[in-house]
Design brief:
Length: about 240
Amino acid sequence: TQVASADYSVISGGKGNAATGPYSAVGGGQGNTASNWYSTVGGGLQNTAGGLCSTVGGGQDNTTSGQYCTIGGGRRNSASGWNITIGGGKGNTASGDNSTVGGGEDNTASGVNSTVGGGSGNTASGANSTVGGGRHNRAEGLSSTVSGGKDNTAYGQYSTVGGGFGNTTGGNYSVVIGGRYNEANADFVMVFGDNVEPSVAEAYRVYFFGDGSIDNRDRARPSGFLVINRLNGNHPI
């Protein structure tokens, strides 16, 4: 049974679809619902466009509950804030106003104006934050960025992790270029290497290399040095 029950609502085809919002439309597919004013479902299976002026292009089990939201396709994606876009993928959630998830799987854009480009299990929770891709990365600070890699976290405001594995920026305006298990623990700090964890939290420093320990292949990590903007600029960590 097809149900177009609201004023000026339209169902073009398919099976078991419902257009219950005024000026709503369902193009086809099965079990789809356009329930709010000016909402649209293009097709697919069991999709719901529940927000004002929201759109689901297709796919399966996708839901827009926020206003002016768009889900292009994919499966089990959810857009619940205002002015949200989810391109596709699976199990993605965008709840921050003006947020975007391009695709991938199980990604979350919960910060206002936040973006997750793709990957898997990534979260952009800070306002204006970005995760480009990778796996299990988190951009939690205001205007923070994680470009990619795995298990990286940008906590500091305006901080950046370029990539790598297990890296953390805790300071504001801090940067970890890449590598693994590195920590930028103070404001305006830049780190690159292997297991660089500064013993002091002093701003305006640059750390390279590692801590001199032995890695899991019995190889010595090179001892680290910092470079700072003053005459005696080379000091051990």
